[in-house]
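note to self — DONT lose this again. spent like an hour looking for the file last time. sequence + predicted structure for the chain T wanted, 206 res
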Amino acid sequence: MTRSLFILTTALMLAACAGRPGAGPGTIVDTTRGPVGPVGREGTLVPHEQIMPRGPYLLDTGDRLRVVVFGQEGLTNSYAVDATGAIAMPLIGLVPAAGKSTDALAREIAGRLRGGFIREPSVSVEVETYRPFFIMGEVTAGGQFPFVSGMTAQNAIAIAGGFTPRANRWNVEVTRKVNGQLYRADVPLTHPLAPGDTVVVRERWF
């Protein structure tokens, strides 16, 4: 009897997960309750750590960069990563930036300048302003806000004016791009955010 009850309970839990809107590859199921991790194509959970960014920060549309080409005031400037994922610089035109680290982009710029413009260019790139994050749902003033390094979901809610009276105050939904793929997760309020994240504060059920 106990075994039958366990099997029935497990089946109901799996059915509930499968019925979640948007459940499928790249979706994390309830990181605040029980096993956590993205759902693979076979319907099984993979390690939660898989969605966390690894290595250096990778640039994307909306980031604003400070590019310094030493000894070249006409090239040293602030550049925005545009909708195509590139920055537009004098002499060398559009330089792909999305998906690159700042060091990789500096090498790319130096290589292009070396090809007929500057003999031994010395280039540095740093992020001047990160791309914004977005927050919506049961907050006082949702919208787009500047990202600050070290932010958590709780900080984002405070920036958006706090919860509405109907808000779920225990966890939020975060959508994040990792290595070119979008993932959606239910995370606790202490979860660290990344530039470009979309945070959704849902309505509580009761």
